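Supplementary Note 3. Input sequence used for the single-chain structure prediction.
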Amino acid sequence: MTIKTGDTLPGATLLQMGDDGPAQVVLADKLENRKVVIFGLPGAYTGTCSTAHVPSFMITHDDFKAKGVDEIICISVNDPFVMKAWGDATGAIDAGITMLADAESAFTTAIGMNFSAAPVGFVNRSKRYSMLVENGVVKVLNAEANPGECEISAGETLLEAI
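The predicted structure, written as discrete structure tokens, is reproduced below.
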């Protein structure tokens, strides 16, 4: 079942690089009594993800904060080492974006945003989406029909919707 507006996000444990290596992040802890933007994408270091999706949230970061958003989280089906390196390479971490790894695609699959394109090496990856979540409930959900596109799920589009 694909997540939709009004649904509560399922429980999930994601990974983030900490000072001592990979650390578990309980998503519910990040959502409780908070307004959070989550965006998911097919993969670190991939074309549209690096040139459009992540930058769209870096550019709009301060505008989201002005609208009361507590945190902006990028989730991808990659390992936490890659997410940290990619966050550093793009400047996303310095811009205030939290980079979380869904290494086994458990969260992505639970919300019905998984897809595979084996000929290009994508197996159980994330479709491209963005959402506004308040206290764990999806208030706005913008999902792309094609993972190579980044218009509906861009930071600017989500910002206009809230």
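Residues 44 and 155 are 17 Å apart (CA to CA). The longest strand covers residues 35-41.
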